[in-house]
Amino acid sequence: MPHIVVDNLIDVKYPQKVNDVEFLFKADELIGVKTPNGKFLLKVLKKEDENYLVKYDKITRPIISEIKKAYEAFIKLHEANVIFENIKGIKEKLPNKNLLNIEDDLSNIDIVEVGFGSGRHLIHLAKENPNKIILGIEIHKPSIEQVLKRLEHEKITNVRVLNHDARIILSKIPSNKLSAIYVHFPVPWDKKPHRRVINKDFIKESQRTLKKEGFLHLRTDSDNYFNYSLNEFLGFDKIDLKVKKNMPYIVSSKYEDRWKKLNKDIYDIYMINHEISPELKENFDFSFEKKLENLDFTPKIYDNFVIHIEKVFKIDDTKELIRATIGNFNRPEHIYILNDEKPVYFKKPAPIKENYLAHLELKRLFNGVS
Prior knowledge:
By secondary structure, the protein is an alpha+beta fold. The protein has 3 domains: 3-85; 99-273, Rossmann fold; 300-365, no CATH class. 22% of the residues lie in helices and 30% in strands. The protein has helices spanning 64-77, 120-128, 141-153, 166-169, 200-209, 223-233, 254-261, 353-365; strands spanning 3-6, 16-18, 21-27, 30-35, 38-46, 52-56, 82-85, 99-100, 111-114, 134-137, 159-162, 178-184, 210-220, 239-245, 267-273, 300-301, 306-314, 320-327, 333-339, 344-345.
């Protein structure tokens, strides 16, 4: 982790500003920082040798250029000498225009592939549909890096990639928008079925986001996953189901190549949508009306989300910084809340349903207004 070690700290009253870097507050060992292109936290820890370690807080994820600015301003603010640093030689990694984050607009997406792995099928979709925007969703970062490099090498411009849980991402896509959703060879999770991509919520969101006559295509080598998924699909109305077994497909993934050598059965389920869904009208208001009080550090687990108040950092007699985990059980978000008469998130949570439900419950639990 890029960090510095300095020999001295002077007493500072916050807020302070050094050039274009604002030091907003100090909450125990944490310092709120705002730069022209970032808002994040620094952590200052006293070492055994009486020097001070200064590093960024990973939850707030600043970019390298802004960390450098903050460290330089911090040194100047405290009139400190640098004992050690490992940041000057780090080059800024330019953001990849094909790599999205969960806050980005997904209203222009036409086709989605969930768990694209090596990217063979994703690249095929892009080439077969040059006028459509294809979104690939994947949680395995090495696969993402590999596909991003291939997109650049082959000059493919109509693919976007997201590193997140697909079950959450679909909830951000407008209704009646997608022509197809592909889920090829998902992990069966026989021992942890709650982690399966295909479930009632995922199918419901798929049906909502699909156009009329759009389809969801599941391809799997698992007998258990096939039987489980078919039963889940049968719980929905206004759909056609087409089932195939051991039929060749236009693109063979590396997993399929492996299963064929083992003579395993391969199943296809096509869920064709015949419903026009209501438009998605979700305006998530992440505001607070009242100070959060009587904080409880016990994790709260609900059907669709979790809430866990982890730690409280004191700013002064009336203000504090709360670190918490909220949102979807399988992909929660780590957040900070500046808690005073009218609390605010240090950085707002991603605008997804599970985060918003957790926000409402957070206010209800700790004396806010629901």
